[in-house]
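A reminder from the course coordinator: this example appears on the midterm review sheet, so study it carefully.

Given structure:
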Protein backbone atom coordinates (compact mmCIF):
# COMPACT_ATOMS: atom_id res chain seq x y z
CA UNK A 1 0.00 0.00 0.00
CA UNK A 2 1.34 3.44 -0.88
CA UNK A 3 1.97 5.89 1.96
CA UNK A 4 -0.54 8.43 0.64
CA UNK A 5 -3.33 5.83 0.83
CA UNK A 6 -2.80 5.08 4.49
CA UNK A 7 -5.78 6.27 6.47
CA UNK A 8 -4.99 8.53 9.39
CA UNK A 9 -7.28 8.26 12.40
CA UNK A 10 -7.62 10.67 15.28
CA UNK A 11 -8.57 10.81 18.92
CA UNK A 12 -12.11 11.82 19.84
CA UNK A 13 -11.87 14.47 22.55
CA UNK A 14 -14.49 17.03 23.56
CA UNK A 15 -16.74 16.03 20.66
CA UNK A 16 -14.05 16.61 17.99
CA UNK A 17 -11.78 14.26 16.04
CA UNK A 18 -8.33 15.64 16.81
CA UNK A 19 -4.71 14.51 16.22
CA UNK A 20 -2.38 13.81 19.14
CA UNK A 21 -1.16 17.11 20.57
CA UNK A 22 2.42 16.27 19.62
CA UNK A 23 1.28 15.30 16.11
CA UNK A 24 2.77 11.81 16.50
CA UNK A 25 1.09 8.74 15.00
CA UNK A 26 1.74 5.03 15.01
CA UNK A 27 0.82 2.39 12.43
CA UNK A 28 -0.98 -0.92 12.85
CA UNK A 29 -0.61 -3.95 10.58
CA UNK A 30 -2.64 -6.93 9.46
CA UNK A 31 -1.54 -10.04 11.43
CA UNK A 32 -2.39 -12.18 8.39
CA UNK A 33 -0.05 -10.08 6.19
CA UNK A 34 2.10 -8.03 8.56
CA UNK A 35 3.57 -5.89 5.78
CA UNK A 36 0.10 -4.50 5.09
CA UNK A 37 -0.37 -1.28 7.02
CA UNK A 38 -4.01 -0.81 8.07
CA UNK A 39 -3.84 2.79 9.17
CA UNK A 40 -2.20 5.28 11.48
CA UNK A 41 -3.54 6.33 14.85
CA UNK A 42 -2.91 9.12 17.33
CA UNK A 43 0.07 8.44 19.57
CA UNK A 44 -1.43 10.33 22.47
CA UNK A 45 0.54 12.38 24.98
CA UNK A 46 -0.17 13.00 28.66
CA UNK A 47 -1.57 16.39 27.61
CA UNK A 48 -4.14 14.59 25.41
CA UNK A 49 -5.19 12.43 28.33
CA UNK A 50 -5.59 15.50 30.52
CA UNK A 51 -7.75 17.19 27.85
CA UNK A 52 -9.87 14.07 27.45
CA UNK A 53 -10.42 13.87 31.21
CA UNK A 54 -11.31 17.58 31.31
CA UNK A 55 -13.90 16.99 28.59
CA UNK A 56 -15.41 13.98 30.35
CA UNK A 57 -15.50 15.91 33.64
CA UNK A 58 -17.19 18.90 32.07
CA UNK A 59 -19.97 16.69 30.62
CA UNK A 60 -20.50 14.69 33.82
CA UNK A 61 -23.27 16.74 35.47
CA UNK A 62 -25.39 17.16 32.36
CA UNK A 63 -25.16 13.46 31.48
CA UNK A 64 -25.87 12.39 35.07
CA UNK A 65 -28.96 14.62 35.02
CA UNK A 66 -30.22 13.27 31.68
CA UNK A 67 -33.23 11.07 32.47
CA UNK A 68 -32.00 7.46 32.47
CA UNK A 69 -34.52 6.24 29.84
CA UNK A 70 -33.11 8.91 27.49
CA UNK A 71 -29.62 7.59 28.19
CA UNK A 72 -30.92 4.11 27.43
CA UNK A 73 -32.40 5.34 24.14
CA UNK A 74 -28.89 6.22 22.92
CA UNK A 75 -27.82 2.66 23.67
CA UNK A 76 -30.82 1.17 21.88
CA UNK A 77 -29.74 3.16 18.83
CA UNK A 78 -26.15 1.98 19.30
CA UNK A 79 -27.35 -1.65 19.34
CA UNK A 80 -29.25 -1.07 16.13
CA UNK A 81 -26.26 0.62 14.47
CA UNK A 82 -23.96 -2.21 15.53
CA UNK A 83 -26.29 -4.67 13.83
CA UNK A 84 -26.55 -2.55 10.70
CA UNK A 85 -22.73 -2.21 10.56
CA UNK A 86 -22.06 -5.84 11.33
CA UNK A 87 -20.43 -6.72 8.01
CA UNK A 88 -18.21 -3.63 7.87
CA UNK A 89 -17.17 -3.77 11.50
CA UNK A 90 -16.54 -7.54 11.44
CA UNK A 91 -14.15 -6.98 8.55
CA UNK A 92 -12.24 -4.35 10.53
CA UNK A 93 -11.98 -6.72 13.51
CA UNK A 94 -10.64 -9.50 11.31
CA UNK A 95 -8.17 -7.20 9.59
CA UNK A 96 -6.63 -5.81 12.77
CA UNK A 97 -7.10 -8.71 15.18
CA UNK A 98 -6.95 -11.74 12.88
CA UNK A 99 -9.95 -13.84 14.01
CA UNK A 100 -12.12 -15.63 11.44
CA UNK A 101 -14.78 -13.40 9.91
CA UNK A 102 -17.71 -15.45 11.24
CA UNK A 103 -16.32 -15.06 14.77
CA UNK A 104 -15.86 -11.34 14.24
CA UNK A 105 -19.48 -11.04 13.06
CA UNK A 106 -20.53 -13.02 16.13
CA UNK A 107 -18.63 -10.56 18.32
CA UNK A 108 -20.48 -7.60 16.80
CA UNK A 109 -23.83 -9.35 17.29
CA UNK A 110 -22.93 -10.07 20.90
CA UNK A 111 -21.92 -6.43 21.44
CA UNK A 112 -25.34 -5.35 20.14
CA UNK A 113 -27.05 -7.77 22.54
CA UNK A 114 -25.05 -6.47 25.51
CA UNK A 115 -25.72 -2.85 24.54
CA UNK A 116 -29.44 -3.62 24.29
CA UNK A 117 -29.53 -5.26 27.73
CA UNK A 118 -27.78 -2.22 29.22
CA UNK A 119 -30.15 0.13 27.38
CA UNK A 120 -33.02 -1.62 29.17
CA UNK A 121 -31.23 -1.36 32.53
CA UNK A 122 -31.62 2.41 32.29
CA UNK A 123 -35.39 2.02 32.74
CA UNK A 124 -35.32 -0.65 35.45
CA UNK A 125 -35.85 0.00 39.14
CA UNK A 126 -32.85 1.04 41.24
CA UNK A 127 -32.56 1.56 44.96
CA UNK A 128 -34.38 -0.19 47.76
CA UNK A 129 -36.93 0.76 50.41
CA UNK A 130 -36.46 -0.61 53.93
CA UNK A 131 -38.84 -0.79 56.88
CA UNK A 132 -37.79 1.60 59.64
CA UNK A 133 -36.97 0.48 63.17
CA UNK A 134 -38.27 3.87 64.39
CA UNK A 135 -41.84 5.05 63.78
CA UNK A 136 -42.28 8.04 61.48
CA UNK A 137 -39.23 7.38 59.34
CA UNK A 138 -38.66 6.02 55.86
CA UNK A 139 -35.34 4.49 54.87
CA UNK A 140 -34.26 3.98 51.30
CA UNK A 141 -31.23 3.80 49.06
CA UNK A 142 -30.73 5.84 45.93
CA UNK A 143 -28.16 5.13 43.25
CA UNK A 144 -25.95 7.76 41.62
CA UNK A 145 -23.33 7.68 38.88
CA UNK A 146 -19.76 7.01 39.98
CA UNK A 147 -18.49 9.94 37.87
CA UNK A 148 -15.76 9.78 35.20
CA UNK A 149 -14.73 6.26 34.26
CA UNK A 150 -11.57 5.15 32.44
CA UNK A 151 -12.26 2.14 30.20
CA UNK A 152 -9.06 0.26 29.31
CA UNK A 153 -9.52 -2.72 27.01
CA UNK A 154 -7.45 -5.51 25.41
CA UNK A 155 -7.09 -6.58 21.77
CA UNK A 156 -8.79 -9.98 21.75
CA UNK A 157 -12.38 -8.67 21.66
CA UNK A 158 -11.91 -5.13 20.34
CA UNK A 159 -15.64 -4.37 20.07
CA UNK A 160 -17.51 -6.36 22.69
CA UNK A 161 -15.15 -5.57 25.57
CA UNK A 162 -15.37 -1.78 25.08
CA UNK A 163 -19.17 -2.04 24.70
CA UNK A 164 -19.24 -4.09 27.92
CA UNK A 165 -17.62 -1.10 29.65
CA UNK A 166 -19.02 1.93 27.86
CA UNK A 167 -22.69 0.80 27.73
CA UNK A 168 -23.11 0.28 31.50
CA UNK A 169 -21.09 3.43 32.20
CA UNK A 170 -23.54 5.44 30.08
CA UNK A 171 -26.65 3.74 31.33
CA UNK A 172 -25.81 4.65 34.90
CA UNK A 173 -24.92 8.23 34.04
CA UNK A 174 -21.11 8.23 33.89
CA UNK A 175 -18.86 9.88 31.35
CA UNK A 176 -15.96 7.97 29.86
CA UNK A 177 -12.36 8.18 28.69
CA UNK A 178 -11.81 5.11 26.54
CA UNK A 179 -8.35 3.71 25.88
CA UNK A 180 -8.34 0.66 23.58
CA UNK A 181 -5.43 -1.72 23.08
CA UNK A 182 -2.78 -0.14 20.87
CA UNK A 183 -3.05 -3.21 18.58
CA UNK A 184 -6.76 -2.72 17.82
CA UNK A 185 -7.59 1.00 17.72
CA UNK A 186 -9.48 0.84 14.40
CA UNK A 187 -12.49 -1.00 15.85
CA UNK A 188 -12.44 1.54 18.68
CA UNK A 189 -12.59 4.51 16.30
CA UNK A 190 -15.47 2.84 14.42
CA UNK A 191 -17.34 2.16 17.68
CA UNK A 192 -17.02 5.76 18.83
CA UNK A 193 -18.28 6.91 15.43
CA UNK A 194 -21.35 4.74 16.00
CA UNK A 195 -21.88 6.34 19.41
CA UNK A 196 -21.77 9.74 17.74
CA UNK A 197 -24.34 8.57 15.15
CA UNK A 198 -26.50 7.20 17.96
CA UNK A 199 -26.83 10.75 19.26
CA UNK A 200 -24.51 10.66 22.26
CA UNK A 201 -23.88 14.26 23.35
CA UNK A 202 -20.34 15.60 22.81
CA UNK A 203 -17.74 15.01 25.56
CA UNK A 204 -19.63 12.12 27.18
CA UNK A 205 -17.29 9.53 25.64
CA UNK A 206 -13.72 10.48 24.72
CA UNK A 207 -11.27 8.23 22.91
CA UNK A 208 -7.49 8.32 23.31
CA UNK A 209 -5.24 5.85 21.49
CA UNK A 210 -1.65 4.89 22.17
CA UNK A 211 0.49 2.58 24.28
CA UNK A 212 -0.73 1.34 27.66
CA UNK A 213 2.41 2.19 29.57
CA UNK A 214 1.87 5.91 28.80
CA UNK A 215 -1.81 6.45 28.01
CA UNK A 216 -3.29 3.81 30.33
CA UNK A 217 -1.00 4.67 33.21
CA UNK A 218 -1.77 8.41 32.96
CA UNK A 219 -5.48 7.57 33.29
CA UNK A 220 -4.92 5.35 36.29
CA UNK A 221 -2.93 8.01 38.13
CA UNK A 222 -5.23 10.99 37.46
CA UNK A 223 -7.31 11.88 40.53
CA UNK A 224 -10.15 13.15 38.31
CA UNK A 225 -10.85 9.56 37.21
CA UNK A 226 -13.31 8.07 39.69
CA UNK A 227 -13.12 4.48 38.53
CA UNK A 228 -11.06 2.29 36.23
CA UNK A 229 -12.65 -0.61 34.41
CA UNK A 230 -9.83 -2.73 33.04
CA UNK A 231 -9.75 -5.94 31.04
CA UNK A 232 -6.36 -7.44 30.32
CA UNK A 233 -3.53 -9.46 31.77
CA UNK A 234 -3.14 -10.23 35.45
CA UNK A 235 0.28 -8.52 35.51
CA UNK A 236 -1.01 -5.17 34.18
CA UNK A 237 -4.16 -5.55 36.27
CA UNK A 238 -2.01 -5.83 39.38
CA UNK A 239 -0.25 -2.56 38.50
CA UNK A 240 -3.61 -0.90 37.97
CA UNK A 241 -4.88 -2.15 41.32
CA UNK A 242 -1.78 -0.64 42.96
CA UNK A 243 -2.22 2.68 41.15
CA UNK A 244 -5.92 2.85 41.99
CA UNK A 245 -5.25 1.94 45.64
CA UNK A 246 -2.79 4.86 45.96
CA UNK A 247 -5.71 7.26 45.60
CA UNK A 248 -8.56 4.90 46.61
CA UNK A 249 -10.13 4.96 43.15
CA UNK A 250 -12.53 2.13 42.38
CA UNK A 251 -11.25 -0.58 40.05
CA UNK A 252 -12.98 -3.36 38.16
CA UNK A 253 -10.41 -5.87 36.94
CA UNK A 254 -11.13 -8.65 34.47
CA UNK A 255 -7.95 -10.64 34.09
CA UNK A 256 -6.38 -13.82 32.80
CA UNK A 257 -7.52 -17.40 33.08
CA UNK A 258 -6.39 -21.03 32.84
CA UNK A 259 -9.75 -22.60 32.35
CA UNK A 260 -10.12 -26.34 32.88
CA UNK A 261 -12.50 -28.74 31.16
CA UNK A 262 -12.97 -31.75 33.42
CA UNK A 263 -14.21 -34.90 31.69
CA UNK A 264 -15.38 -37.79 33.85
CA UNK A 265 -18.14 -40.36 33.36
CA UNK A 266 -19.12 -38.50 30.22
CA UNK A 267 -21.72 -40.30 28.09
CA UNK A 268 -20.96 -38.52 24.81
CA UNK A 269 -17.23 -38.04 24.26
CA UNK A 270 -17.75 -36.93 20.67
CA UNK A 271 -19.90 -34.03 21.84
CA UNK A 272 -17.43 -33.20 24.63
CA UNK A 273 -14.51 -33.18 22.18
CA UNK A 274 -16.38 -30.89 19.78
CA UNK A 275 -17.29 -28.46 22.55
CA UNK A 276 -13.78 -28.48 24.00
CA UNK A 277 -12.03 -27.89 20.68
CA UNK A 278 -14.38 -25.03 19.78
CA UNK A 279 -13.86 -23.36 23.17
CA UNK A 280 -10.11 -23.94 23.10
CA UNK A 281 -9.27 -22.77 19.57
CA UNK A 282 -11.75 -20.00 18.77
CA UNK A 283 -9.86 -16.73 18.34
CA UNK A 284 -6.72 -18.93 18.10
CA UNK A 285 -7.03 -19.60 21.83
CA UNK A 286 -6.72 -15.89 22.61
CA UNK A 287 -9.85 -15.69 24.76
CA UNK A 288 -9.73 -15.12 28.51
CA UNK A 289 -12.38 -17.84 28.90
CA UNK A 290 -10.85 -20.26 26.37
CA UNK A 291 -10.61 -23.83 27.62
CA UNK A 292 -6.87 -23.98 28.11
CA UNK A 293 -6.45 -27.40 29.75
CA UNK A 294 -8.33 -30.68 29.73
CA UNK A 295 -8.40 -32.77 32.90
CA UNK A 296 -9.70 -36.21 32.00
CA UNK A 297 -10.36 -39.29 34.07
CA UNK A 298 -7.96 -42.07 33.02
CA UNK A 299 -10.91 -44.37 32.14
CA UNK A 300 -11.99 -42.10 29.28
CA UNK A 301 -8.68 -40.48 28.39
CA UNK A 302 -7.69 -42.50 25.30
CA UNK A 303 -11.13 -42.22 23.71
CA UNK A 304 -11.38 -38.49 24.41
CA UNK A 305 -7.85 -37.67 23.23
CA UNK A 306 -8.43 -39.46 19.93
CA UNK A 307 -11.60 -37.42 19.31
CA UNK A 308 -10.00 -34.12 20.32
CA UNK A 309 -7.12 -34.65 17.91
CA UNK A 310 -9.56 -35.55 15.12
CA UNK A 311 -11.44 -32.28 15.62
CA UNK A 312 -8.24 -30.22 15.88
CA UNK A 313 -6.83 -31.58 12.65
CA UNK A 314 -10.01 -30.42 10.89
CA UNK A 315 -9.41 -26.76 11.81
CA UNK A 316 -8.67 -24.64 8.76
CA UNK A 317 -5.93 -22.16 9.61
CA UNK A 318 -5.72 -19.16 7.31
CA UNK A 319 -6.50 -15.52 6.70
CA UNK A 320 -9.62 -14.71 8.69
CA UNK A 321 -11.16 -13.04 5.64
CA UNK A 322 -11.17 -16.35 3.69
CA UNK A 323 -14.62 -17.92 4.04
CA UNK A 324 -13.15 -21.39 4.70
CA UNK A 325 -10.94 -20.27 7.59
CA UNK A 326 -11.90 -21.50 11.04
CA UNK A 327 -8.76 -20.29 12.84
CA UNK A 328 -6.91 -17.10 11.99
CA UNK A 329 -3.38 -15.94 12.83
CA UNK A 330 -2.20 -14.84 16.26
CA UNK A 331 -2.49 -11.11 16.86
CA UNK A 332 1.23 -10.28 16.87
CA UNK A 333 4.72 -11.64 16.48
CA UNK A 334 5.20 -11.27 20.24
CA UNK A 335 2.21 -13.52 20.87
CA UNK A 336 3.56 -16.08 18.40
CA UNK A 337 6.94 -16.11 20.12
CA UNK A 338 5.31 -16.60 23.53
CA UNK A 339 3.27 -19.54 22.26
CA UNK A 340 6.31 -21.11 20.64
CA UNK A 341 8.36 -20.72 23.82
CA UNK A 342 5.76 -22.65 25.83
CA UNK A 343 5.56 -25.34 23.17
CA UNK A 344 9.35 -25.79 23.11
CA UNK A 345 9.39 -26.06 26.92
CA UNK A 346 6.61 -28.66 26.76
CA UNK A 347 8.49 -30.78 24.22
CA UNK A 348 11.77 -30.50 26.13
CA UNK A 349 10.12 -31.52 29.39
CA UNK A 350 8.77 -34.73 27.80
CA UNK A 351 5.08 -33.91 27.31
CA UNK A 352 3.59 -35.90 24.42
CA UNK A 353 3.05 -33.59 21.42
CA UNK A 354 0.13 -35.09 19.48
CA UNK A 355 -0.38 -32.47 16.78
CA UNK A 356 0.84 -28.98 15.82
CA UNK A 357 3.77 -27.53 17.75
CA UNK A 358 5.15 -25.11 15.19
CA UNK A 359 4.68 -21.82 13.42
CA UNK A 360 3.10 -22.36 10.00
CA UNK A 361 5.15 -19.81 8.11
CA UNK A 362 8.92 -19.66 7.77
CA UNK A 363 8.90 -15.89 7.98
CA UNK A 364 5.97 -14.71 10.12
CA UNK A 365 6.83 -11.02 9.61
CA UNK A 366 6.03 -11.33 5.92
CA UNK A 367 3.67 -14.32 5.76
CA UNK A 368 1.55 -13.96 8.89
CA UNK A 369 1.54 -14.99 12.53
CA UNK A 370 0.11 -18.45 11.93
CA UNK A 371 0.60 -21.18 14.48
CA UNK A 372 -0.54 -24.78 14.13
CA UNK A 373 -3.28 -25.78 16.59
CA UNK A 374 -1.40 -27.83 19.16
CA UNK A 375 -2.37 -30.63 21.55
CA UNK A 376 -0.16 -32.12 24.26
CA UNK A 377 -1.07 -35.30 26.14
CA UNK A 378 0.25 -36.64 29.47
CA UNK A 379 1.10 -33.17 30.75
CA UNK A 380 2.13 -33.00 34.40
CA UNK A 381 -0.29 -30.97 36.51
CA UNK A 382 2.49 -28.58 37.54
CA UNK A 383 4.01 -28.12 34.10
CA UNK A 384 3.98 -24.49 32.85
CA UNK A 385 1.75 -25.76 30.01
CA UNK A 386 -0.84 -26.80 32.61
CA UNK A 387 -0.75 -23.83 34.97
CA UNK A 388 0.25 -20.68 33.04
CA UNK A 389 -1.93 -18.65 30.70
CA UNK A 390 -0.39 -19.17 27.23
CA UNK A 391 -3.12 -17.30 25.32
CA UNK A 392 -2.70 -19.23 22.11
CA UNK A 393 -3.80 -22.39 20.27
CA UNK A 394 -2.25 -24.87 22.70
CA UNK A 395 -4.31 -27.47 24.59
CA UNK A 396 -2.59 -29.54 27.30
CA UNK A 397 -4.29 -32.72 28.53
CA UNK A 398 -3.77 -33.93 32.09
CA UNK A 399 -4.84 -37.47 33.01
CA UNK A 400 -6.23 -38.06 36.52
CA UNK A 401 -7.86 -40.72 38.69
CA UNK A 402 -11.30 -39.65 39.89
CA UNK A 403 -13.16 -36.43 40.64
CA UNK A 404 -11.24 -35.43 43.77
CA UNK A 405 -7.93 -35.36 41.92
CA UNK A 406 -9.55 -33.57 38.97
CA UNK A 407 -10.88 -30.79 41.21
CA UNK A 408 -7.60 -30.48 43.10
CA UNK A 409 -5.75 -29.99 39.79
CA UNK A 410 -8.46 -27.66 38.43
CA UNK A 411 -7.93 -25.50 41.52
CA UNK A 412 -4.13 -25.75 41.35
CA UNK A 413 -3.48 -22.51 39.46
CA UNK A 414 -3.60 -18.87 40.53
CA UNK A 415 -6.53 -18.28 38.17
CA UNK A 416 -10.26 -18.76 38.69
CA UNK A 417 -12.16 -17.54 35.65
CA UNK A 418 -14.22 -20.24 33.89
CA UNK A 419 -14.46 -24.02 34.26
CA UNK A 420 -16.33 -26.72 32.35
CA UNK A 421 -17.45 -30.17 33.45
CA UNK A 422 -18.57 -32.94 31.08
CA UNK A 423 -20.39 -35.73 32.91
CA UNK A 424 -23.74 -37.49 33.25
CA UNK A 425 -23.53 -37.77 37.05
CA UNK A 426 -25.64 -35.23 38.90
CA UNK A 427 -23.64 -35.75 42.08
CA UNK A 428 -20.47 -34.73 40.23
CA UNK A 429 -22.22 -31.60 38.97
CA UNK A 430 -23.06 -30.63 42.56
CA UNK A 431 -19.56 -31.42 43.86
CA UNK A 432 -17.84 -29.58 41.03
CA UNK A 433 -20.06 -26.52 41.29
CA UNK A 434 -19.46 -26.30 45.03
CA UNK A 435 -15.72 -26.99 45.06
CA UNK A 436 -14.23 -25.63 41.85
CA UNK A 437 -12.67 -22.17 42.19
CA UNK A 438 -14.08 -20.27 39.21
CA UNK A 439 -16.34 -17.32 38.54
CA UNK A 440 -18.24 -19.10 35.76
CA UNK A 441 -19.11 -22.79 35.59
CA UNK A 442 -20.38 -24.59 32.50
CA UNK A 443 -21.77 -28.10 32.61
CA UNK A 444 -21.74 -30.24 29.45
CA UNK A 445 -20.76 -27.40 27.18
CA UNK A 446 -17.75 -25.18 26.44
CA UNK A 447 -17.00 -21.90 28.18
CA UNK A 448 -19.49 -19.71 26.32
CA UNK A 449 -21.17 -16.94 28.31
CA UNK A 450 -24.41 -15.09 27.56
CA UNK A 451 -25.14 -11.39 27.03
CA UNK A 452 -27.11 -10.72 30.24
CA UNK A 453 -25.51 -13.04 32.84
CA UNK A 454 -22.83 -11.83 35.30
CA UNK A 455 -19.31 -12.43 34.01
CA UNK A 456 -16.15 -12.44 36.09
CA UNK A 457 -13.52 -14.40 37.93
CA UNK A 458 -12.06 -15.15 41.35
CA UNK A 459 -8.46 -15.45 42.62
CA UNK A 460 -6.08 -13.77 40.14
CA UNK A 461 -8.71 -13.71 37.40
CA UNK A 462 -10.56 -10.66 38.58
CA UNK A 463 -11.54 -8.21 41.22
CA UNK A 464 -14.51 -5.94 41.73
CA UNK A 465 -18.05 -6.19 40.43
CA UNK A 466 -18.77 -8.76 37.72
CA UNK A 467 -19.47 -7.20 34.33
CA UNK A 468 -22.39 -8.06 32.00
CA UNK A 469 -25.90 -8.24 33.38
CA UNK A 470 -27.24 -6.53 36.49
CA UNK A 471 -24.09 -6.97 38.61
CA UNK A 472 -22.23 -4.37 36.51
CA UNK A 473 -24.18 -1.65 38.32
CA UNK A 474 -22.14 -2.16 41.49
CA UNK A 475 -19.05 -0.79 39.76
CA UNK A 476 -20.65 2.13 37.92
CA UNK A 477 -22.70 3.58 40.77
CA UNK A 478 -22.50 4.96 44.26
CA UNK A 479 -25.22 4.18 46.76
CA UNK A 480 -26.69 6.72 49.19
CA UNK A 481 -28.76 5.61 52.18
CA UNK A 482 -31.50 8.19 52.83
CA UNK A 483 -33.42 8.45 56.12
CA UNK A 484 -36.46 10.74 56.22
CA UNK A 485 -38.40 11.60 59.40
CA UNK A 486 -41.92 12.70 58.62
P1 LIG B 1 -2.63 -6.23 28.54
O1 LIG B 1 -2.76 -6.35 30.02
O2 LIG B 1 -1.26 -6.24 27.97
O3 LIG B 1 -3.30 -4.87 28.02
C1 LIG B 1 -4.64 -4.55 28.30
C2 LIG B 1 -4.83 -3.04 28.16
O4 LIG B 1 -4.07 -2.38 29.17
C3 LIG B 1 -4.35 -2.47 26.84
O5 LIG B 1 -5.21 -1.42 26.43
C4 LIG B 1 -2.98 -1.93 27.19
O6 LIG B 1 -2.55 -0.91 26.31
C5 LIG B 1 -3.23 -1.39 28.58
N1 LIG B 1 -2.03 -1.25 29.42
C6 LIG B 1 -0.83 -1.86 29.29
N2 LIG B 1 0.01 -1.44 30.27
C7 LIG B 1 -0.69 -0.56 31.04
C8 LIG B 1 -0.37 0.19 32.20
N3 LIG B 1 0.82 0.12 32.78
N4 LIG B 1 -1.34 0.98 32.73
C9 LIG B 1 -2.57 1.04 32.18
N5 LIG B 1 -2.91 0.36 31.07
C10 LIG B 1 -1.99 -0.45 30.50
O7 LIG B 1 -3.54 -7.39 27.93
P2 LIG B 1 -3.71 -7.80 26.40
O8 LIG B 1 -2.45 -8.49 25.97
O9 LIG B 1 -4.21 -6.64 25.62
O10 LIG B 1 -4.91 -8.86 26.51
C11 LIG B 1 -4.71 -10.20 26.85
C12 LIG B 1 -5.03 -10.44 28.31
O11 LIG B 1 -6.34 -9.98 28.61
C13 LIG B 1 -5.04 -11.91 28.68
O12 LIG B 1 -4.37 -12.09 29.91
C14 LIG B 1 -6.52 -12.24 28.84
O13 LIG B 1 -6.80 -13.32 29.70
C15 LIG B 1 -7.04 -10.97 29.37
N6 LIG B 1 -8.48 -10.85 29.15
C16 LIG B 1 -9.33 -10.99 30.21
C17 LIG B 1 -10.71 -10.94 30.01
C18 LIG B 1 -11.68 -11.10 31.14
O14 LIG B 1 -12.84 -10.70 30.99
N7 LIG B 1 -11.29 -11.63 32.28
C19 LIG B 1 -11.22 -10.71 28.74
C20 LIG B 1 -10.32 -10.56 27.68
C21 LIG B 1 -8.95 -10.62 27.90
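Designed residues:
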Amino acid sequence: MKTEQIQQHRNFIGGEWVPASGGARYAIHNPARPRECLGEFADSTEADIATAIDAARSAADAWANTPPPQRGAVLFRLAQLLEESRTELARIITLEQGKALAEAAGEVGRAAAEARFMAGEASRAVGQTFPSERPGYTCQTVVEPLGVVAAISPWNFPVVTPVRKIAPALTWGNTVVFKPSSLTPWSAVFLVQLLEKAGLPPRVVNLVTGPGARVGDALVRDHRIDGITFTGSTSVGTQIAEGAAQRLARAQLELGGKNPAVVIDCPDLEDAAREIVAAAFQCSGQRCTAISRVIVDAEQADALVERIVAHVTRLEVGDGLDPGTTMGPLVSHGQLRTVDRYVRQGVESGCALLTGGRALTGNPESDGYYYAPTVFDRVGPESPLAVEEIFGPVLPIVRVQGLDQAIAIANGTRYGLAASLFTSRLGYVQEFTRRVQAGMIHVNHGTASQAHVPFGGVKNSGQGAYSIGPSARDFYTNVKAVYVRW
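The chain is about 40% helix and 20% strand. The first strand starts at residue 11 and ends at 13.
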